[in-house]
Amino acid sequence: MGRLSGKIAIITGAAKGLGEADARIFAREGATVILTDVDRENGERVAQEIGDAASFVELDVRSEDAWQQLISDVVDNHGGLHILVNNAGVVEAGNIETQTLKDYQFVMDVSAQGTFLGCKYAIPAMKRSGSGSIINMASIASVQGESYVAAYSAAKGAVESLTRSVAAHFALNKMPLRCNSVHPSGIVTPMVMSMPEKMIESGLISLDDSNQASGVSKLGEPDDIANTVLFLASDEAKFINGAAIRVDNGMSIVTGIVPE
Length: 260
Ligand SMILES: NC(=O)c1ccc[n+]([C@@H]2O[C@H](COP(=O)([O-])OP(=O)(O)OC[C@H]3O[C@@H](n4cnc5c(N)ncnc54)[C@H](O)[C@@H]3O)[C@@H](O)[C@H]2O)c1
Hints:
Layout (H helix, E strand, L loop, with lengths): L7 E4 L5 H12 L3 E6 L2 H11 L3 E5 L5 H15 L4 E4 L14 H29 L2 E6 L12 H23 L4 E8 L5 H4 L1 H7 L5 H7 L8 H12 L10 E4 L13
Helix pairs in contact: 1-2, 1-9, 3-4, 4-5
């Protein structure tokens, strides 16, 4: 028996990076996994590689109509919903002086609004299914000052606070549901690998700085996060609600950079 046997799970932003790792590990542990993303090509490929336990549905997490349709289709096609991973997110490099309102709105719309809509529309289906676990992907950007990603920090702060509000709603109303946030540091994914280029483009660092900086901080692997998400999704975490779990190799609690 897998740790998620019999569970039906939706993962957003599952075409690559951390969402892809979640999808692969969830399927291995017995879940039926609905991968969603705006990147149809990679999403369909990953679902196909996983096999019968997985399917792909195109979803832009910013769209309220699309969320309502997705939840309704998942319940009709699979009979319920037990797990939602609000993983989709975007980053733009820039500090409070350089970032534009457009940058801010883009990043907030995907991470903060997307997570709000996901929670809102998953909850009725989870209640009908008799149990539920929502995992919201935040970041250590919500717990420490990251000057070079101002909008991203705001969005992840919103995700962390919303998680606690949703968790309190479940507890106060004695619902058999849980909501927790996960806060990674740098993990090797397309998002993180694109950061040096974005920082050069935005004028925050020079090419020389980026060459010097590369490799001094220890990066994690997608499975370091996926194993934590798996635990929170499973019934093993049945007494954990409203937690903000840092998965960062201590990076957010030390001064300076954690050496390799
Ligand atoms: N990788 C890290 O080190 C790290 C650290 C902290 C937090 N996070 C968070 O973890 C999550 C996953 O990060 P990642 O590194 O795998 O990123 P990634 O860029 O590698 O993958 C993100 C996925 O989200 C999808 N996406 C983007 N906009 C979307 C939208 N509007 N609707 C649906 N899908 C959309 C992308 O197509 C992509 O497949 C993000 O929320 C990110 O902020 C990552």
